[in-house]
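STRUCTURE REQUEST FORM
Protein name: Olfactory receptor
Source organism: Anas platyrhynchos platyrhynchos
Requested output: structure tokens
Priority: standard
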Amino acid sequence: MPNSSSITEFLLLAFTDTRELQLLHFALFLGIYLAALLGNGLILTAVACDHRLHTPMYFFLFNLALLDLGAISSTLPKAMANSLWDTKDISYQGCAAQVLFLVLFFDAEYSLITVMAYDRYVAICKPLHYGTLLGSRACAQMAAAAWGSGVLTAVLHTANTFSLPLCRGNAVDQFFCEIPQILKLSCSDSDYHREHAVIGFSLYVFFCCFVFIVVSYVQIFRTVLSMPSVQGRHKAFSTCLPHLAVVSLFLSTIMFAHLKPTSISSRSLDLVVSFLYSVVPPAVNPLIYSMRNQELKDAVRKLFENFPYQ
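Status: completed
Returned output:
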């Protein structure tokens, strides 16, 4: 039986074995990837170039766009290459890198949207203290903490996962390298339980962040509903809705992917669900944030107006 020292590559699960459908999937993936690059790239450029967007909210949005670009670039290019060239293999090092970066970007993104919930809480519930609580130094520290948590979690998970002896083949039942699927290839119960301990700790942190987000929005809604001005309530809700939509999309796709009943689990459904949580949020987030944000729309429009003259 193969072990981890003899494995040089993993075999990923293909969406289909039909050549025409593979090319169709490649075209679909390419369109989604280009849309994600364009949307997040415009946000990065607009925030960097327009001084009116140099505020805490847009600073965190800038970091969110970076994380979205990293997350979708961790999985989709390899999936596109496999669909285009009709292959399934990924090198051992490539699989480890995919796990490392995917965990890094998704964990950091979850930490960041927790920080963004705090930003909205301070802006609405404690507006007089906004400049004090969310100064440039505090924002940089919170963003660094989000990135740092992602790096730490990714290193721990990747080191634990790829230190496991693998003796159950090299076929990964997913279109990208995912920790639960690699754990199925392990033949060491002690190391397997060690990785589950790390996952348990991550779930605990995940739950704490979730509670923090919920409590923040309970306070936000209480404050907004007590506002005497209808216009003030509308403005407050408008600033919260994009972030709330991003949080809902991020959490709902991940929770459904990992908490769905095993009775409804199948390879086809697992592929679709994993596609939803790994690809859809990074591609859709720019659209969510730009739909109701006039300042961002104006900054992007200004970019296009000035582009020919640069």
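Reviewer notes: The chain has ten helices and two strands. The two ends are 61 Å apart (CA to CA).
Form closed.
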